[in-house]
Amino acid sequence: MVKITVDGKVLEVDETKNLLEEILSQGEDLPYFCWHPSMGSVGSCRQCAIIEYANDEDERGRLNMACMTAPRDGARYSIAKAATFRAQAIESIMINHPHDCPVCEEGGECHLQDMTVMSGHNYRRYDGNKKTHTNQYLGPFINHEMNRCITCYRCVRYYKDYAGGTDFGPQASHDNTYFGRWQEGPLESEFSGNLAEVCPTGVFTDKPFSKHYVRKWDLQTSPSICVGCSVGCNINPGERYGTLRRVVNRFNDEVNGYFLCDRGRFGTGYVNSEDRITVSMTRTSHTADPVLATTEAARAQLQGMTGAIGIGSPRASMEANFALREMVGSDNFYAGVSARELGMAQQILEIYRTRPVNIANIKDIEASDAVLILGEDVTNTAARLSLALRQSVRNLGKQMARDMKFPEWQDAAIRQLTMDRKSPLFILSPHATRLDDVAATVHISTAAESARIGFAIATAIDGNAPGVTGLSPEEQSLVKTIADALKGASQPLIVSGTGSLSPALIDAAANIATALSDGDKKANLALIAPEANSLGLAMLMGESDNSLDKAMASGAKSAIVLENDLYRRASTSAIDAFINSLDNLAVLDSLKHRTGEAANLVLASGTFAETSGTYLNYETRAQHFYSVYKPVEAIRSSVYWLSDKPLSELTSACAQAISEGEGMAHLTPDHSLANMRFPRQQHRYSGRTSMRANISVHEPKQEQDDEGIMSYSMEGIPAVKDAAVFNTPWVGGWNSNQSVFKFQSHTGGALKQAGHGQVLISSTATDKQYSPFTGDTSETGDYEVFPLYHLFGSEELTGRTATIQEKGTTAYVALNPADADKLGLQESDGVTLKGIGSVPYLVRSQIRSGTVGVAVGLEGLNFADLDSSVSLEKAADWQSPPQWRAANVIASDRGAI
Length: 897
Ligand code: SF4
Ligand code: SF4
Ligand code: FES
Fold this sequence. Notes:
By secondary structure, the protein is an alpha/beta fold. The strands form 9 sheets. Strands 15-14-26-25-24-16-17 form a 7-stranded mixed beta sheet. Helix 22 links the parallel strand 25 and strand 26. It is 26% helix and 18% strand. The protein has 28 helices and 38 strands. It binds iron/sulfur cluster (2 copies) and FE2/S2 (inorganic) cluster.
């Protein structure tokens, strides 16, 4: 730390950071555009100008950009003395900016507006023509309005440099600079939605939001958690007039930082979908016509189902699963997932408990300097983590910069310095992936082969780890290269998960991380789980092996299914047989699906936006989500249907009932605090009276929230006072999401008051235990099957969102070119999976001959119908389904083609 003086005020600041972030961290205001806490400085916008004095005698000083200045001990600076320059700088920036604030969708949270006011530019002298541009169609997610551009370069630095996108960039000629695609078309990056938050103006805005736009300050919002995958990114959904309008990022430095993936940001349209179950229905038999059930009658019927088994869900909250378990009894409670999936989730928990490893959060991932990914297609199964992995390869460059006494925030200079040199990232996968462009080595191998290689790597690091025999010379050389790189790293990281459906692969990952750990120095390990609360469900199951397979074999005559379409969990024939064997089936869910259609009783349950609860992410991090709004009367939370207890009591009881659950009981602040709740509406809210002026000028009574610590009102303790409930960030003068820094202990760092959630399992193990190599068995068939995941469509709920469907496609298989030739396939042919059905196919060069990739969760094929291998033939009389969009697969899965 060093002492500096800014306008006569003595500040103690971190000399390894730049002056802009240090000034902001001290709570001072200083305008900026191009600097971003995650992306560092390039000094292009000239807005953060300050005066730096050479010494005590210097009266004049010289102009510097704060974002490009390293604080010097004892130095004097002035923000005030550079005010004229900043006003002139913004005047020139604004010359071409249109006067369209009243119709601009950035309005209400525009950083450009804020900085213009802050810099004191309030009169436009320029009356010449403005430069105009043609806008591009950029796909279903993002609007483009180039006239608003101020040429700060943030978009391209984010999209290209940070997120690795290749289809977007700056194009310039003479004094025209254009930010767009080389040619019109959908943005290919899985993280394109962040452009809307990164761009300080209204060039890039949220297209689905604009279709039902409302003023940002009139949105009712709550802190929430994304249900799109097991990362558990923190989100801030906004509602108006009973529909969910948009989702934006909510900062959590340990989970998602400043960014979301497009599935999480744009995949919540299902909440407003016509497929919603909006009333409860009952019928006397599977074939009778359903009749409407009142809330009381439906609840009484459900709670009267004595002797029923309960089938839980990895996408339902801890509280809802727990309430069902309480209702039916532990012995009658079954995880709503296959035996294999439950086993792998329990395996992950056991590894986290018993191995001397550090469960890697996003900061650990970004800080890792050698990474091995074992069989997990992270971009499609846990997208936000792949963005973090992309940053990890920059650590070699950062180290080079440190060695040369170069500041880390000098973004462009470090990229120049390191050129193509990267920290090692090794990927073992059955197909090419979206991270291959930053990988040192990509080895195409089946899950079983990757597991063998993984076990050998562990042995190469620690001779006590169980080894394998029979590796080829090429594999042995790969083992040595990877083991040496991991051993030589200061923060090695192993990433794997359930995506390959291979317990052996997870064991291999755990063995490598264990082998690398040395006393207090624990290796980082991240094991990806399939869904938002998969690990929570597994913790609730404890040692029980009550999987869906066991439920189906239980002989039960009556079953309650919680938020789960069983047809996605097991083979169609097995689920048909199970449902037909039941006399009574109750389904609680928010969207219509096949399991619900077969039920005697369907109860309309709320989505994440309308209910509250807790999910456990891939790290076992318990995070609470708060309902954003009240749905129509007939829709209730699953917890309401299943239990008489209030939510807070269920949370506490659940915390006590699971091992290591203690942290879950302390996620929400005490709402007896000053006897006030936390408002869902901003102070800037337009006013309730005006909302209903066409009906009545009398202000209606506000809805009451009986179960949480938040109010459906603008009254209460706002986030500015207590960010323990970090709802929409807003500070006077800082109306955009840039205001987050006002809530952070240091710009880019942890929030001052809000928690990060609670990671429930933290291993204290020091003993190096290893899993024995068991291998994976393969059934006979022509082609070994491996799953192919898609960010857009593979996940059940987000896949029901119209904009996600526009980016997605129907199910297909992917084959090696030689295998496609062997089967005599031409471009427009289909492939028959014997005994299953026919689907379109794609050729991918980087797939091993003899293996076939099968799309998971997409319309047209139930992956659970397949064995581990399958026989293929050319489909007779084939016609591609209308929703098959090969181009979408190619565009969204570029690396895998
Ligand atoms: S489009 Fe937005 S982020 Fe990109 S240069 Fe223009 S103003 Fe900056
Ligand atoms: S990475 Fe997962 S949790 Fe995060 S935004 Fe994407 S889908 Fe949601
Ligand atoms: S923020 Fe410093 S020059 Fe742009």
